[in-house]
Design a protein that fits this description.
CATH architecture: 3-Layer(aba) Sandwich
Number of strands: 5
Strand order of the largest sheet: 2-1-3-4-5
Bound molecules: tetrahydrodeoxyuridine
Structural class: alpha+beta
CATH class: Alpha Beta
Strand content: 25-35%
Helix content: 25-40%
CATH topology: Cytidine Deaminase, domain 2
């Protein structure tokens, strides 16, 4: 497993998250989000938010990308790019921070993007300190 992800792979994920954002189904919030993961094998997995007329049943882009990773046999998130529009950073919601936590590595990077590119990078500990994960179950 590579310790550090290449700049090329990072850029691949950033570009993919920005591009896939337009595929989101967000008729209620009008807030489209794209997410792209590079897994432990260097493979790309993508997701978008999918809303629902019964509002709480909507799902986030990160959730979709994680589901795609697991379905493809990926096990760990090396890098995840999340892309949204607006003036504020499109940081993952609390539930998605915990979902990312489940598959995070010590060096996992979360890149927050807008249509022009990556605007900020965080570690999991930055956005979910003192987290509860699989190890906590003993
Ligand atoms: N959303 C995401 O998909 N990911 C985020 O990181 C933040 C929020 C979605 C959920 C909902 O469909 C819309 O954005 C507005 O909250």
């Amino acid at each position: 497993m590579p310790e550090l992800i290449s700049d090329e792979k990072r850029q691949q994920a950033v570009s993919a998250a920005i591009k896939i954002m337009d595929m989101a189904y967000a008729p209620y919030s009008q807030f489209q989000v794209g997410a792209a993961i590079i897994d432990e094998q260097g493979r790309l997995h993508q997701g978008v938010n999918v809303e629902n007329a019964a509002y709480p049943n909507g799902s986030c882009a990160e959730t979709g990308a994680i589901a795609a990773m697991i379905a493809a046999g990926g096990e760990k998130i090396q890098f995840i790019a999340v892309a949204g529009r607006g003036t504020e950073l499109c940081t993952p919601c609390g539930a998605c921070r915990q979902r990312i936590r489940e598959f995070a590595l010590p060096h996992t990077v979360i890149a927050i993007c807008d249509p022009s590119g990556s605007k900020a990078e965080f570690s999991l500990a930055d956005i979910l300190p003192h987290s509860f994960g699989p190890d906590n179950l003993g």
